[in-house]
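Support case: flavin-adenine dinucleotide complex. Customer-provided input:
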Amino acid sequence: MRTQVGIVGAGPAGLLLSHLLHLQGIESVVLEARSRQHVEERVRAGVLEQGTVDLLNETGVGARMMRQGLVHRGIALQFGRKRHRIDFQELTGGKSVMVYAQHEVLKDLIGARIAAKGQLLFDVEDVSVSGFDGAAPKIQFRKEGSLQELTCDFIAGCDGFHGICRPSIPAGVLTTFERIYPFAWLGILAQAPPSSEELIYAYHERGFALLSMRSPEISRLYLQCEPDEDIANWPDAQIWQELHTRLECIDGWKLVDGPVIQKGVTGMRSFVVEPMQYGKLFLAGDSAHIVPPTGAKGLNLAVADIRVLSRALKEYYATGKTQLLDSYSATCLRRVWKVQRFSWWMTSMLHRFSDDNAFDQRRQLAELDYVTSSRAASVSLAENYVGLPMD
Ligand SMILES: Cc1cc2nc3c(=O)[nH]c(=O)nc-3n(C[C@H](O)[C@H](O)[C@H](O)COP(=O)(O)OP(=O)(O)OC[C@H]3O[C@@H](n4cnc5c(N)ncnc54)[C@H](O)[C@@H]3O)c2cc1C
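Agent response - structure generated as follows:
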């Protein structure tokens, strides 16, 4: 098999890259280790920045999102038994975010690629990449038991944090920057109408809580928990009790509960590798960086990388110039580090740390007070949350 761009991974990064390349007349093949059904049902992120929404619309895959997604014009920060609204529209000159689940975005992208007769290979095994430091990059994989080889001009490593592309880069090339947080999120998906029209980020002495949603019928809620928390120790009734305690701090406001459809524990980590490119292998999305989910940025950052990579490939195939490909890593990393800073800041402001003391708690409360009472600080939060402009 031969193609122009071989893409490992059918998450948001890989599928969007394949879609954008197709619109530019560039061929690609996407290789995915899991089944189509698994990819289309995997519950993950759900907040799309304004720029992500615009890109999906501009490239013809936004119609269902515009019908079913929920436009959010602000969020609430809750602390000290009060709730404060950060009004994105007013603070950013009309911008907002869209609540639309990541797996729904993936269904839309898979639908578009299949309609365009794009090559998406699910359930592939034993994927390996080679030759990317020379002129002949190759991807080997097993499909239905038989070993196959895909030769290509470039390889896009869109295979997430646990993928094979990043570890295939020779030792000593990449520098890793990492922070692991001393807590995790216990998340549930519940058959319950959201108790608030907008997300509520709650700072509480028992730990952080987040009220979020996926649709008018489905709530998504999170609790700060221990990093090694065993979900088996959390019966549904206990999760709801803890959510009621941390979120119901406002007189007269009640959290509506309902049957838990899914639950799990997600670790919290900040992670970046530099550079995001080696030879003809380009890393994009979670394969190159991870953010803690507090800023709702993981999926959006993957989309931002792909925007840069697809433009660089477009220039290369149109003119033969490699300038944009050569600057791919530096261009992406400027945004990556700003998003890392924002995600770390939101996480640090809103969570209880195991070693925090009365000074740290007062400092966090002062920071929340400042963010919600200073227009300059509110603008800073809002412009980062809706998404910084693309370079
Ligand atoms: C449990 C969980 C919850 C999350 N919740 C949030 C959230 O609430 N908010 C938020 O902003 N972000 C969240 N994120 C982060 C967000 O979902 C990711 O940043 C986003 O999925 C990144 O997209 P990606 O395409 O780079 O990687 P991924 O979505 O991880 O896609 C990588 C793909 O590559 C495939 N793959 C892996 N290895 C191979 C291989 N060897 N061969 C072929 N295919 C391979 C995987 O199966 C996967 O389909 C969450 C992540 C996780 C794991």
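The chain has 13 helices and 20 strands.

Case will auto-close in a few days if no follow-up is received.
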